[in-house]
Here is the input.
Amino acid sequence: MKKSYRVNVPVVLNQVPTKEVEAKAKKELKKYRKQLSELQDTMYAHGKYNMLICFQGMDTAGKDSLIREVFKDVNARGVVVHSFKVPSSKELKHDFLWRHYVALPERGKIGVFNRTHYENVLVTRVHPEYILGEQLPAITELSQVNDAFFHRRMEAINEFEAHLQETGTIILKFYLHLSKHEQKNRLLRRLRLKDKNWKFSSSDLEERKLWDTYQYCYEDMLNRTDTDQAPWYIIPADDKPTARLRVAEIIVEALASRKDIVEPELDAKTKSQLADFRNQLENDLS
Here is the structure.
């Protein structure tokens, strides 16, 4: 993959392209899906690493369909998807990272967060009144839910991810960069097609009015939480097939680069008995 989508310099979102078209994206994706499946099998057998993949993006950015298409060839035991909605009453009785920590993948598996712990510095920053529902002892009025508050949360997230990386979690984070015009087209499609009506909510239009605020919050978040141990990638999302291919390429590249992830070898005793085991099975008349 020649082009880098990594956030490694201060990013200005309105200067980053939202559309890229790869002519053979669907065909190429099939190849990467197969590689991803094989790499996950090896990681599962190795048993010392897991992988956390995070997806963020504006409404209609294509997170659900991307996850379905990229991971469809991975063994069902090897990938677990969590879609985080509005926190439950139980979740609100814990710190904001708790529900994400308990959803982390086991060693050998890939965990996919569809919307993530970053909602706590995105949606809540656009709607700071939501923070009052957390009943934080240090927050007594809305004016305290300010930039400094969210920047401290971002530091906590960086520390959380550093800890995960140190204990064997490979972290990749993807922001699906959608244009406002393309979002309009996708919302209209939900209204026009009867089988897509269920996806539409009037709240989508209310959130759309806050587009510029969300873009500011995303930009600040990307610049403050891109780290070597948990990198962000900005994926042009206006063309869905190409976005899916780019994500698959990055995941495969990240796993393939871990040369220490290898299938374990049989112990010497078992190896020496392989011929005997094979003979037993070949001579089994049942």
Q: What stands out?
A: The chain has eleven helices and five strands.
